[in-house]
Design a protein that fits this description.
The complex is a heterodimer of chains A (194) and B (572). With 194 residues, chain A is mainly alpha-helical. In chain A, 46% of the residues lie in helices and 6% in strands. In chain B, helix 1 runs parallel beside helix 12 (549-569). Chain B has twelve helices and 17 strands. Chain B is globular, with a radius of gyration of 23 Å. The chains are: A mainly alpha (194), B alpha+beta (572). Chains A and B meet through helix 2, helix 4, helix 5, strand 3 and helix 6 of A and helix 2, helix 6, strand 9 and helix 10 of B.
C-alpha cells in the first residue's frame, strides 16, 4: 500500500527542466524505443523481473543516473546486473521488496497522473521520480520511502562499481606517488614515467 | 604419511609458517597441522586480479548469510560482508565460540592454509625496551622474562626475510631495523609530520612499516616474491607475493628443504601427554571432514594456532598430571586476554594542497608511535597509545546513493576528486587483567565434539581514561596539522567496547619467570612440559601499542632456534 504522504495529488506537474537533455542508451535486454514517450520498452523477461518491471527499472535507473557526456545507468547495464543480483545475492525479502517498489512506482504514476508509469511522457516520469526522491528522504519512515531508498542505493552501487563509471580505474598502478602536480598526475595516468 | 616427526607445528599462520621454516631449514622433519583447507600460492581463491565490476555480486555477500545467521561477528566488525575476502574468514556459525551476553567478544579467524597471514594488516613494528619493562614497572600482569635486547637479533633476522619497507626514524619507542626503502608519504602527510615535529617534543608522524616489498632482495625472489604494485588489495591475497604471508614466503621456504609435511583439514584436538616420560608425545587431530581422530607423534610441539586457538587446545589437553589442561599447573592458561583498543578517531580537511594529487594505492598507513610510556601529572592512567593515521590520497566527493538527489546535475558532481583529509585512529594498550580470561564452555561443543571456547574480557577504567585523553590529544594534533572541519569521535564511557575488534588478541599462555604465575618461560617454552612451546599471541605478557605480528615472528624464530639446539643436544 502506498502511504498517503507519497500520494500527494497536488504534486507539481511543472515540466522537469532536464527533460530535454534526455539521451537514450540501449539496454542489454531486447527492447524497443517507444518514440511517443521516449521510453525503452523491454521485451525479454529477465532472470527475475518481468519485462514490465525491467522497463520501469531501466527507466528509473536512467533517470537517476542519466547518460550525459559520460555513460549512464543503461550504458552500465544496471538493470540486467540488478536482475542477476536478485538471483545470486538477494534474499526473499529483498526480492519481494524490489518487486513491490516497482509496483509502487507504477501505482504512484496512476494515482498522480491517472496513467501507468510506462504510459507517461518522459518529462512526467522524470518529474515523478525526482519528486519521489525528495519525498523519500523527507518522510523516511513510510514503506515507499524505505523501499525506494533501498532500490536507489543498489542502483547507485551497481552503477558506480561498473566499468563504465570507472574509466580511470587501474588494477595494477605499479607505484604510489603522494605528491604530484596536475600535469605529473595526468602523465602517470597515461602510463608515462615521471 | 608417516605419523612420527621431529616437530609438530599446530597452525600455519604467521607464526606456524615461521616455526616450519626454521625447523625444516635446520634439518628437522616437520609436520604442520592446519585445521582449514589447503590453499596454493598464488591461489585460485585470490581476488586481487579482479576489477570492482568483476567481483562476485559486485562485492556484496549473499543476503542468505544474514538469514542464516552466518558471519554475524564479521559483519559487525566490517560493517558489511564482501565477496572479495569473505573466503578467508571463518564463519562463526560453523565455528562457534562463546562469550557473556553483555560482553560480546570478536574472534576473527581464518581457517585455511596460511591462516590470518593472508589477511593481516602488515604493519610491522618492533616493540621498544619500555614495552617489555611495563609489567614489572607498574605491577600489572606478569613481568616479561625477556627484554628488547633479547629479541633485537631476532627482529633483525625475521625482518630481513619478511622484507619491511620503512624509514629509519630514530625513535626509541620504535626501534629501527634494516629496512627496505619506505613507501612515500603524501604531500599532506609530510606537511602534518613537519608541523607535528615543530609543535611537539614527543609526537611524531612517520610512514608505516609495511611487510610489503618496495624492492625484492635475493631472499625474497628465491621464494618467488616480487615487488608491491601499490594496489592495496592485500587482503584478497597477492598474486605477486609482494606482501609477506606464510603462503608466499615461509611455507615455500620450508617446502624447499623437503623436510615439510602439511596436513590440512585436521583440527588439533589435544596435545598428548606421556605420563611416564613427562613430555608431550604428539597431537591428536580430528579430521574436519570425516570427524575421525588420528594421532601424530613428535619430539617437540609448537603451538602456533593463534592466541585463543592455542589456549583452547591447551585447556582441552587433559591428562592425569594436567586435569585442567596441559602446561597449566599455574592455573594461568586462559588468563590475561588482551587486545588493542581504539576508542577515539578524528579527522579533518587539510587545505592548501588543492593543486596536489596522488596516484596508486599505498598498502600501509602512517603512524604516530606511543608517546605516553612515562607517567605524567596531566594523566591518571598507565601505559599509553599511538595512532594509525593517513592522508594518502584526496577523498572522493561520493554519491547521493543515501541522500536526496538524482539526475545529470547530481551525477556531474559525484565521485570527483575532493579535499585532502587527514585522519587518525587511536591504538591503545590494554592492561593484562587476570580476570579477562578464556575457558572451555562447560556444556557447549562444536560439531567435532570440542568444547567451545568461552571468552570473557572487557576494557576497564585505565583504558577508558586513555580514550578520553587520546581524544584531547588528537584534537591538538589535528589543530597542529592545520585541519579544518574537524571531527573527533570518542566511544562513550558507558558503551561496551568489543574486545577482539582489532584482531590483536594476545595472552592466555603468558611468558614469565615464575612457573606459579605464568605458563611459559623466556623461550616461550612451557614451564611444565619441556618439549611444548607456544609462540603465537598467547605467549604475550602485555600487548603494548604496536601491531604485534612482527614480535610474534621474532619470538617464534628465537624459540625454534632454542628448541633446535635442545633437539640436537638430545635434551628434548
Amino acid at each position: 500500500m502506498t502511504p498517503p504522504e507519497l500520494l500527494n495529488p497536488t504534486m507539481s506537474r511543472r515540466v522537469f527542466i532536464g527533460a530535454t537533455a534526455y539521451v537514450v542508451s540501449v539496454p542489454l535486454f531486447a527492447s524497443i524505443l517507444k518514440t511517443d514517450n521516449e521510453l525503452i520498452k523491454i521485451i525479454d523477461k529477465g532472470q527475475f523481473f518481468t519485462p514490465e518491471e525491467l522497463t520501469i527499472l531501466t527507466d528509473v535507473a536512467e533517470i537517476m543516473i542519466p547518460k550525459t557526456d559520460t555513460p549512464g545507468a543503461t550504458d552500465a547495464k544496471v538493470a540486467p546486473v540488478l536482475d542477476g543480483l536478485m538471483v545470486t545475492w538477494a534474499n526473499d525479502q529483498t526480492k519481494q521488496q524490489f518487486k513491490t517498489t516497482l509496483m509502487q512506482i507504477n501505482t504512484l504514476a496512476r494515482d498522480t497522473y491517472q496513467q501507468s508509469y510506462t504510459g507517461l511522457g518522459c518529462a512526467d516520469r522524470q518529474q515523478m521520480i525526482t519528486e519521489l526522491d525528495k519525498a523519500a528522504f523527507t518522510a523516511q519512515t513510510t514503506q515507499l520511502s524505505i523501499n525506494y531508498r533501498r532500490l536507489k542505493e543498489l542502483i547507485f552501487h551497481v552503477f558506480y562499481s561498473s566499468e563504465e563509471a570507472n574509466p580511470d580505474f587501474v588494477l595494477i598502478p605499479g607505484h604510489y606517488y603522494g605528491d604530484l602536480t596536475k600535469s605529473q598526475f595526468e602523465k602517470v595516468k597515461r602510463g608515462e614515467t615521471l | 604419511m608417516t605419523e612420527e616427526f621431529d616437530v609438530i607445528v599446530v597452525g600455519s599462520g604467521i607464526t606456524g609458517g615461521w616455526a616450519a621454516k626454521e625447523f625444516c631449514e635446520k634439518g628437522f622433519k616437520t609436520l604442520v597441522i592446519e585445521r582449514g583447507r589447503h590453499l596454493d600460492h598464488p591461489s585460485s581463491e585470490y581476488t586481487d586480479m579482479q576489477a570492482p565490476w568483476q567481483l562476485d555480486n559486485r562485492n556484496m555477500a549473499p543476503e542468505a548469510y544474514d538469514d542464516e545467521g552466518r558471519y554475524a561477528m564479521l559483519k559487525a566488525k566490517k560493517g558489511k560482508l564482501k565477496t572479495d575476502t569473505i573466503q578467508f574468514f571463518a564463519d562463526d556459525k560453523e565455528h562457534p565460540y562463546s562469550y557473556p551476553e553483555d560482553k560480546p567478544f570478536m574472534w576473527t579467524r581464518g581457517y585455511h592454509l596460511g591462516g590470518r597471514s593472508i589477511t593481516w594488516g602488515r604493519q610491522s613494528l618492533r616493540w621498544g625496551p619500555k614495552d617489555f619493562e611495563a609489567n614489572a614497572k607498574d605491577g600489572h600482569g606478569v613481568p616479561w622474562p625477556i627484554g628488547y635486547k633479547d629479541l633485537e637479533p631476532w627482529y633483525n633476522y625475521v625482518e630481513s626475510f619478511v622484507g619491511i619497507s620503512a624509514n629509519k626514524d630514530g625513535i626509541d619507542a620504535l626501534p629501527d631495523g634494516d629496512f627496505l626503502k619506505p613507501f612515500e608519504m603524501s604531500c599532506v602527510e609530510q606537511h602534518v609530520a613537519k608541523n607535528m615535529e615543530r609543535a611537539f617534543k614527543d609526537r611524531r608522524l612517520i610512514i608505516g612499516r609495511a611487510a610489503n616489498l618496495t624492492e625484492a632482495k635475493t631472499q625474497h625472489t628465491e621464494v618467488g616474491r616480487s615487488p608491491c604494485q601499490a594496489r592495496a588489495y592485500c587482503q584478497r591475497g597477492c598474486t605477486f607475493g609482494a606482501y609477506f604471508s606464510s603462503l608466499s614466503a615461509t611455507l615455500p621456504a620450508a617446502k624447499k628443504t623437503q623436510n615439510l609435511s602439511i596436513l590440512t583439514d585436521s583440527i588439533a584436538y589435544s596435545v598428548d601427554y606421556d605420563e611416564h616420560k613427562g613430555k608431550a608425545s604428539g597431537v591428536t587431530v580430528i579430521d574436519a571432514k570425516t570427524k575421525q581422530k588420528r594421532q601424530y607423534k613428535a619430539r617437540v610441539i609448537f603451538l602456533c594456532a593463534s592466541a585463543l586457538g592455542s589456549v583452547q587446545i591447551l585447556l582441552n589437553s587433559k591428562s592425569q598430571t594436567f586435569p585442567n589442561g596441559i602446561a597449566n599447573s599455574s592455573g594461568a592458561v586462559g588468563h590475561y586476554i588482551m587486545d588493542h583498543i581504539t576508542g577515539t578517531i578524528g579527522f579533518g580537511d587539510v587545505p592548501g594542497f588543492e593543486h596536489k594529487y596522488s596516484y596508486g594505492r599505498r598498502p600501509i598507513a602512517t603512524y604516530i608511535p606511543n608517546y605516553r610510556h612515562e607517567p605524567s601529572e596531566q594523566v591518571d592512567f598507565v601505559r599509553g597509545y599511538g595512532y594509525q593515521a593517513t592522508a594518502q590520497s584526496r577523498k572522493m566527493t561520493g554519491t547521493t546513493a543515501k541522500s536526496v538527489g538524482i539526475g545529470a546535475a547530481v551525477k556531474a558532481k559525484a565521485n570527483k576528486i575532493g579535499q585532502w583529509q587527514f585522519k587518525a585512529l587511536m591504538y591503545g594498550e590494554m592492561l593484562p587483567y587476570y580476570d579477562n580470561y578464556a575457558s572451555l564452555h562447560p556444556t557447549k561443543k562444536d560439531q567435532w565434539g570440542i568444547p567451545l571456547l568461552h571468552i570473557d574480557a572487557e576494557v576497564k577504567e585505565n583504558e577508558r581514561k586513555m580514550i578520553v585523553q587520546a581524544a584531547k590529544d588528537l584534537k591538538e594534533i589535528l589543530a597542529v596539522a592545520g585541519c579544518e572541519n574537524t571531527t573527533i569521535r570518542e566511544v562513550p564511557a558507558d558503551r561496551h567496547i568489543v574486545v577482539g575488534n582489532r584482531t590483536h588478541e594476545m595472552g592466555g599462555a603468558v611468558m614469565g619467570s615464575d612457573p606459579k604465575t605464568s605458563v611459559l618461560n623466556k623461550w616461550a617454552q612451557s614451564h611444565d612440559v619441556a618439549n611444548l612451546f607456544v609462540t603465537d599471541g598467547a605467549c604475550m605478557s602485555s600487548c603494548a601499542t604496536q601491531n604485534p605480528s612482527l614480535t610474534y615472528m621474532a619470538i617464534t624464530a628465537r624459540a625454534a632456534d632454542y628448541a633446535a639446539k635442545l633437539l640436537n643436544q638430545g635434551t628434548l
